[in-house]
Structure formats: C-alpha cells, structure tokens
Amino acid sequence: MDAIVLHRDHDGPRRTTLPRPEPSTGEALVRTLRVGIDGTDYEVLNGGHGEFPEGQDHLVLGHEAVGVVVDANGTELTEGDVVAPTVRRPTPDGSGREYFERGEADMAPAGTYHERGIVGADGFMAEFFTSPARDLVRVPDRLAEYGFLVEPASISEKALEHAFASRSAFDWSLDSALVLGNGALGLLTLGMLVESVGVERAYCLGRRDRPDPTIDVVEELGATYVDSRTTPVPQIPRRYEPMDLVYEATGYARHGFETVEALAPSGVGALVGVPSPWEFEVDGGALHRDLVLSNKALVGTVNSNVSHFQGAIETLDALPDWLFDAIVTDVVPVDDFERAFTEDESTIKTAIEFSDT
Amino acid sequence: MDAIVLHRDHDGPRRTTLPRPEPSTGEALVRTLRVGIDGTDYEVLNGGHGEFPEGQDHLVLGHEAVGVVVDANGTELTEGDVVAPTVRRPTPDGSGREYFERGEADMAPAGTYHERGIVGADGFMAEFFTSPARDLVRVPDRLAEYGFLVEPASISEKALEHAFASRSAFDWSLDSALVLGNGALGLLTLGMLVESVGVERAYCLGRRDRPDPTIDVVEELGATYVDSRTTPVPQIPRRYEPMDLVYEATGYARHGFETVEALAPSGVGALVGVPSPWEFEVDGGALHRDLVLSNKALVGTVNSNVSHFQGAIETLDALPDWLFDAIVTDVVPVDDFERAFTEDESTIKTAIEFSDT
C-alpha cells in the first residue's frame, strides 16, 4: 500500500510502498480517508521533534486522521464506521500503563508513551492503518470529510476543559476571549469559542496584512483581528479589553508570560503552543504579583484522550460548513502529496486524501 | 476603648482611645479577643501597602481577628458566639457589588473593595468592632483561643481549593507537596496539608540554621525541611522528588517561576505570596514548554470568603493543639502591644490579646 514516510536522513516526506497491516486481537483495520498536516509534522520533518520507531529506518507520518473501518476484527466497531484515531499508544515497557488503563494517556509523563506519526510509532499517512478499537472514535457522516480536524479540535477541547476546570471554584463568566495565533488550530479554536462555547467578544492575534484569508475567517466569525505588530499582547487590554480567557497557540515563548498581562481579573491562560528553550528578561515580580492579586491562572495542556475526541466531535458538529471549507485550503490526492507540504500566503490547512467514503 | 492604630506619618503602631462603635442595622457588636499579626501588617506599617480610610488621619490595624458577639443587634447571631470576621467590605461607590452579593468578595477586582485593617477601612485591633453579621463566621469553642488563625488558614483553604479545581478535569493524586516559606502561613499550610488533606510526603523550604523552632515544627509534622541555601528550588526534584503541589508563600518573585520546575507532571503551583515588581532573566521558553508538555498549572489567589472561613475552621479543627502552640510564639496583652511587633529568631507568629473568653 502507499504510505508517506520520513527516512532517518530527514530528506523530506517520501512516498513508499509498505505491506498492508494486519489487525491484532482488539484492533480494527481502517482504510484511510484523509490525513491533515500541522506544525508538529513540520517539526518532525525538520528533526526538531519526534523519534523513529525502534528498528525502523523510517516513520510513517501523520497523526490527524479519519478513515473507514474495513475489518472490525471482532471488536465493537462495525465495518463502514467512520473513525478518527487518537495519537498516544503504550510503550512496550508499559511504563505509562496506569494512564492508558484509565483512559488518560494524555496525562502520561514524557517517555511513557509513543505518539503515532510523531514519537516512536508509525502514523496514519498510509492507505490503511490498524488501531486498537478503543482508540478509534466514531465520527458522524456530516463530519466524515473533515474528520481529520477532530484531532486538532480535541487538543482545544482538552485545553478548554482544563482551563474551565481551573475557574470552577467560583462564579466565572467567559465573555471575552483572545486566541493567540491565526493558524489552523487558532482559527478552529476561535470558531469553537464563538459558535459552540458562545463567547460574546472574541479576538484573534496574527501578524498578517489584509487581504488575508485568515483575517477573513476571523471577521466572518464576528471576531476581531488584532495585529501584533501594531498592538503587542500586553497592550491588548488597553486597546481592546482585558480577556477572561487567552488561548496561546503560537508557541512563541514570550506570549506565555504576556498572556498574564492580557487577562482580566480571574482570567485564565490556556497554553498549548510548544516553544523551545529561550532565555529572556521578564518583570517576574509584576507577573507573579498579578497572578496572585488578580486571582489569575495559567494552565498548560498537551495531547487529548478519547473523551476529548468525543467532545470535539460534538463541538465540531456545531460549527458551520463554511468554516471547515475556509480553514482547509487544500485537499491533495496522494499522487500529489508533495503539494500538501508546501505553504504560501493562502495556505491555512492542508490534508492528503488516500481514498473517499 | 483601646485601639492600635497607624497614623498617616507612619511612625509605627500607636495605642489610642477611640469611641466604642455602634452597630448599624445588620451589624453585630463584637468584643475582641485576639488579633494576629502577619506580613501584610508590616507592609501596611512600612507604607508599602494599604490605604487610610477616607477623611481619617489613622487606620485601626489588624485583619486576623477573633471575638465574642456582645450585641447581636437583631441579626442571626447570638450574644456569646465566638466569631472570626472576613476582611473585605464594599466601597461606598458599590463598584464591587455583584461580587459581595454572591459571597465572592475575594474575587472582586482591585479598587472595588476595602480591606479592614489594610485598605481604606479600620481593622480589628480595638477592644470592640462592628461588622455585618454575614461577614462574621462562628468559631467552635475549641478554636476560640486560636480563632485569629482562621483568617490566614482561609487564605490557604482558598488557594488549595482553586489549585485542586485546576486538577479536577482528570484523575490527579496529591502525594507530594512542597511549601515554599517557613513563616506562620507556610507552617500552618504544611500542617493543613499533612493533617487534614493527608499528603503522604510533605516538604517545607526555608533558609534557617538548626536549632530553629520552624524546623522543629516541620519535622514534628513528619515533613522534610529543605534548606534553600543548599538546595535551590529547581534542584528539589533531583535531590528529593518532583512535587504534585507547590504552595508559594514567600512572595519571592523567582519562586513563582521556579515552582514550575519543582512540579511533577500534572502538578500545580498555588501562589499566594505577593512580590513587588522585579525584572530578571528566565528561560521562558523552557518554562512555557514544560507547562504545556507536562500538563502543569499555576494558580494565583488572594483573600478568601465566608465559605473559605468555614472550610478553614473545619480544617483547623483537624489540627493538633501542639501545632497552634508551636506556631503562636507570643500572645501579648494590649498594654504591652509593642512587643507583638518585635521579631527575633524565635518568633513565628504573635497576637495581641484584648480580652479573654
């Protein structure tokens, strides 16, 4: 079968032929429909993140997938089910066992899991993949085409769940929200906040000139585009308003700290972007003081579990079709896979199509 | 009646005679038993924090009080009730009204409240005080003597409540906890964590040589004393273990950031210390990355409300008498009030006694 892999020489994504996988007990065989590409894939390609599967000279790429069950193999699934796979799997040493057993692999410490398409396990960019049935989440027909957005949406589902939990000990009202980052994840999360959570006043930060398709999406959602070149994050409360929630999706390390300044009293910053080490000066006294005196919180989260996939599916089902069409700027047949890894000003999110429903 | 006040010339605490207050409708008259002294009182004395009541040349000090109702004045209280007063009160402009109405004055933004003995309203260091009955929390007889510890304990009650809430979206287990600061609040919180929350392995950070009464309290509680001069906070996970919870009570700004490094995966830092502005260099990239990839959280909290006072009373009631005796190193009659504001190596917490039960 066709697969898109990265070799250990890191010479970019390559098309190769691999044997069709056989499902083991408890696993189903899935025919891949589409696989999305995100920033993590680029980090893996650049060698900045990830790990090859032990004893393999290549890694099958891709962790945002949707497919159709073609062999339920005695599991609770049914042939024809459209499913999205979660990403984390146990390591052979079983060190993260307790987290997997209680369905919270997303909370497992680094080193106790593999991540398909990222760390130590093949991903989903192939005509077929197998997966334990418990890691496959049913996707309703309406979302089948865009089912590869369930994984990124689940990242935000979890981040928002943890952020809201941190504000659950008192009467908190989420009226204003700021998304830092106008990439696919930022725009999708902005859509979730506006259309599903029902945030009244939403803002999205970017650094693009008009006309720009991401700014169009922000405004079509009724949100306000904030240009970080003219309004740096710490100035947002003065220029716009202080924010009950800030969702940080850029991974720009300074934003993690500036988030505190952008928050309203009792606000929470949800951090999902992953920066690299970088030393810089902060007014740590003022930041620490503000966290305390204004009852603010910063909550970091990574990955997501089956419950977040299920939540994401419900949330995505509340979003309008135009938003999916606007965010997914290119769906590329596998013959043309290289195009999916090129970006220009008009690119927001691309996916590779392996087959159709 | 006798009162201990600070004048606008900031020449230290002074004894003066004031008229006995008359309770308004909804208020009770309370005969003061004891009033504790903490770091905030010193900040007020030094002019670093606080505000004089409008139109007054002095501020009655003290915000950690316990007293006996001597005139219930038609409220739901009964003469003879031992009570501890909460600290925040509405400003005349009513800007924080909604927070007071729902019993969450502790979440009100700065500028929308007064704080008795601190910001814009007289405190409790007087033979009598009045207070709205709804801001007086009944204290059981066993705790009457140490009822002035209810207010500081309520600060930790709230901080822990918010910290635990932030970990409520998943299966979190609190096995290891580190308290930064071996002052009265740090030791009281250590006692709460060990004796009431039931944390298995507790640690307390200080910078004192043995023999030292605070180290004795730490060890009597079965906790481990960590000397920050030999083991800086970021080295604690290697030297001891990573912490599920870090409670930051020093207000040393670097600790707010080092807290993240001391945490175990999925851990939470509860910040209650209040630093001043101070710029310094941090590896902001590594910190931000660690928050995200290890699902960590930082939660700042300030003040407390009636529900936290009630929780604190239950929590304190689970603590052994020796702990109160060890933490409260001096109870000074009002004639001798100046002694309560002096500190040496053996001082942990002092209180002024205005009358006895």
Written overview of the protein:
- Two copies of one chain form a homodimer.
- Chain A has helices at 39-46, 97-101, 150-166, 184-197, 213-220, 236-239, 253-262, 284-293, 306-317, 321-327, 337-340; strands at 2-7, 13-17, 27-36, 58-60, 64-71, 82-85, 88-90, 113-116, 120-121, 128-132, 136-138, 176-180, 201-206, 224-227, 243-248, 263-271, 279-283, 297-300, 328-333, 349-353.
- By secondary structure, the first copy, chain A, is of the alpha/beta class.
- Helices cover 28% and strands 29% of the residues of chain A.
- In chain A, helix 3 (150-166) crosses helix 9.
- Chain A folds into two domains: 2-138 and 320-353, Alpha-Beta Complex (Quinone Oxidoreductase, Chain A, domain 1); 153-300, NAD(P)-binding Rossmann-like Domain (Rossmann fold, 3-Layer(aba) Sandwich).
- Chain A is globular and about 60 Å long.
- In chain A, strands 3, 5, 6, 10, 11, 19 and 20 form a seven-stranded mixed sheet that branches. A six-stranded parallel sheet of chain A has the order 14-13-12-15-16-18, sandwiched between helices.
- The interface between A and B is large, with 58 and 57 residues.
- Strand 17 of chain A pairs antiparallel with strand 17 (279-283) of chain B, so a sheet runs across the interface.
- Chains A, B: NADP(+) binds at residues 182-185, 207-208, 301-303.
- Chains A, B: This is Glucose 1-dehydrogenase.
- Chains A, B: Its EC number is 1.1.1.47.
| Largest binding interface between chains | A-B, 58 and 57 residues
Shape of chain A: globular
Biggest sheet architecture of chain A: 7 strands, mixed
Task: Specify the structural class of chain A.
Answer: alpha/beta
Helical residue percent band of chain A:
25-40%
CATH superfamily of the largest domain in chain A: Medium-chain alcohol dehydrogenases, catalytic domain
Return the domain count of chain A.
2
For the record, the CATH architecture of the largest domain in chain A stands as: Alpha-Beta Complex
Query: Which parts of chain A are unreliable, with pLDDT below 50 for 5 consecutive residues or more?
Result: none
